[in-house]
Amino acid sequence: xxxxxxxxxxxxxxxxxxxxxxxxxxxxxxxxxxxxxxxxxxxxxxxxxxxxxxxxxxxxxxxxxxxxxxxxxxxxxxxxxxxxxxxxxxxxxxxxxxxxxxxxxxxxxxxxxxx
Length: 115
Fold this sequence. Notes:
Elements: E1 3-7, E2 10-12, E3 18-25, E4 33-39, E5 46-52, E6 57-60, E7 68-73, E8 78-83, E9 92-98, E10 104-105, E11 109-113
Parallel strand pairs: 2-11
Antiparallel strand pairs: 1-3, 3-8, 4-5, 4-9, 5-6, 7-8, 9-10, 9-11
């Protein structure tokens, strides 16, 4: 059974950090392009970061470049999103994705940045 499970969300203050994890089961993440998306209230879901774990190639939305780092551990079939210098505008539900918008999705994890 294919499944993606996110964890690591929470409530933090501006400037703090969080690390999200996405554990895949039922498939190998090395065989898919893996991504993090986020959806803020009353906004469309947007692509945050993308990684091809087989090659290590990554790409980021302009809004998170230099602050967020996407990575993957193929041995654990787990993808990560290290988020530093968090801002209130980073507040959203963060989703793990495998294989693009028509692929597999996790259930989401809430990240709230507020003082």
